[in-house]
Design brief:
504 residues, alpha+beta, 5 domains, six-stranded mixed sheet, five-stranded antiparallel sheet, 10 helices, 32% strand, globular, disordered N terminus, transmembrane helix, transmembrane, membrane
């Protein structure tokens, strides 16, 4: 029920001011939030000093702050995919919010009691999560600052986001000059019992042309219910095109993507406008997988739009291998090449008018290698592939029975390992006094057939992330596809942690 409070203030020195405060427990509060946030800090002090008695200002302050408190304490909740349809979050190219929500939801287990169990650790920095202080009060206040926390993910400008999958970051890379490509975030609230999440939210930053562009917009902040998280996971279970199914159900505006550079089309009767219109109308099928945008045919013509794909992978000797696919003839005829850069140093990979293929370059694998498709003549960039992540986009694996984990990564083309120790595990050097890490060039090798190894206590301190201390060691073994690291508690060949094999 809408409650209206009309306050008429007559005891001002100059002119009367009529203030109408409207508040309820629904979306109306969201609409007026921005207004109240501004005036509570700037207008109230200037008004209050005009009252003849200071205490007469107290009801005024209360009424001004009440709607803000209501909003900050309770962002609206989305319960079904239908609720996602009419919000702004991530719905148009190059926004990435719906893709990010899909990814996070598929790494959460939600049971029948609505307990949310993540298979990642936000305060360890997994997938680029970082601590968010919520100084603007967008989210409910934490009851225990020492054990609870807010963690945000989705800032694609940061190196820590390199580990996010290709489909989350692709719009960011296709729209190099867009102010819209990095606004969306997913925020989680951790529980005092660290195995659970208390809540999951979606939000977005204000537009870049807004003075508040570095803040989250409370009018576009929503809580995602456990039921919706389950629905996102179950909606497209066991389907090859599960992302397409979700985006279609949530009414992602596919027509907002510019297809001009990515289409094969023949005949005069089909133009690019028809392709864009059809793309927004086609329901997902097995043929519209993540890498295929849309196809449109009539009796004389056929159009097929694919995503151009670029990536950096490993050779058998720790060098970078460039892989590309789906480059249309319209670009090949103009002359294109792949340029791979890091810190201003670049190497060029010729593609010889091949729409797909690989090319090995004499550059060691390192974090930050960025492959971009460019014209041969003027070197202008068309689009970029995902920036290479030195962990092969793999999360650390838990060391069973201990507050510690193991991660394989690469530096200068060599296989390296990172021991991640929670700061409460203070006697780890005693517990791991006889422990060691083995490096394997092939994950099919037996435990005793390691290529090289190092004792856990010889790892060097790297730094601290959240509540975790990082210790690292780089071996003399080249990183390569199928490589693996394993953790052994004692001298016996019984591993208690094994990393996921390095991808080809």
């Amino acid at each position: 029920m809408l409650t209206s409070v009309f306050i008429y203030i007559e005891k001002l020195k100059r002119i009367p001011i009529a203030i109408v405060v409207l508040f309820n427990f629904s979306s109306i509060i969201n609409i007026i939030l921005s207004y109240y946030r501004t005036i509570t800090l700037s207008v109230i002090p200037s008004l209050c000093h005009r009252f003849t008695m200071g205490r007469e200002c107290l009801p005024f302050i209360f009424l001004m702050l009440l709607p803000v408190a209501l909003v900050w304490a309770n962002p609206p909740t989305l319960n079904t995919t239908s609720d996602l349809i009419n919000i702004e979050f991530g719905h148009r190219f190059p926004r990435h919010g719906l893709h990010l929500l899909y990814f996070i939801a598929h790494h959460l287990d939600v049971d029948d009691n609505n307990i949310i169990r993540p298979n990642f650790v936000p305060d360890r920095g997994d997938w680029g999560f970082f601590s968010y202080s919520d100084s603007e009060g967008v989210f409910p206040p934490l009851l225990d600052q020492n054990q609870q926390g807010y963690y945000s993910v989705g800032n694609l400008n940061l190196q820590i986001s390199y580990s996010l999958p290709h489909f989350v970051t692709q719009s960011y890379r296709l729209a190099l000059g867009s102010a819209e490509r990095n606004r969306d975030r997913v925020v989680v609230r951790t529980s005092p019992n660290r195995e659970y999440l208390e809540a999951v939210y979606i939000t977005q930053r204000y537009p870049l042309n807004d003075p508040r562009s570095n803040q989250y917009d409370p009018q576009n902040t929503w809580r995602i219910s456990p039921a919706l998280l389950r629905e996102i996971r179950n909606l497209s279970a066991n389907r090859k095109d599960s992302l397409s199914v979700f985006l279609y159900t949530a009414s992602y505006d596919v027509s907002s993507i510019n297809f001009n550079k990515y289409c094969y089309y023949t005949g005069p009767d089909i133009n690019i406008d028809q392709v864009e219109e059809a793309s927004a109308q086609q329901p997902p099928t097995e043929s519209t997988a993540v890498n295929k945008r849309v196809s449109l045919s009539n009796s004389n013509n056929h159009v097929e739009c694919n995503e151009i794909f670029l990536e950096v992978k490993a050779t058998d000797k720790g060098y970078a291998r460039i892989r590309w696919s789906n480059i249309p003839d319209t670009l090949l005829d103009k002359g294109v090449q792949v340029n791979v850069c890091k810190d201003g140093s670049c190497l060029t990979s010729p593609i010889d008018k091949r729409s797909y293929g690989t090319y090995d370059i004499r550059k060691y694998l390192n974090k930050g290698l960025s492959p971009c498709l460019q014209y041969v003549v003027n070197k202008s960039e068309i689009m970029c592939g995902p920036t290479y992540d030195d962990t092969d986009r793999k999360l650390p694996v838990d060391i069973k029975g201990y507050d510690a984990s193991l991660q394989l990564y690469t530096k200068d083309g060599y296989a390296c390992a990172r021991l991640i120790i929670k700061n409460t595990f203070s006697d780890w050097m005693n517990k791991f006094g006889s422990s060691w890490v083995g490096f394997y060039s092939d994950h099919n090798k037996y435990n005793y057939n390691y290529d090289t190894h190092q004792m856990a206590t010889y790892f060097q301190y790297e730094g601290m992330v959240g509540q975790y201390n990082m210790y690292v060691y780089c071996s003399n073994m080249a990183i390569r596809p199928e490589a693996q690291a394993r953790f052994f508690l004692h001298k016996e060949y019984v591993s208690i942690a094994m990393t996921i094999p390095w991808e080809r």
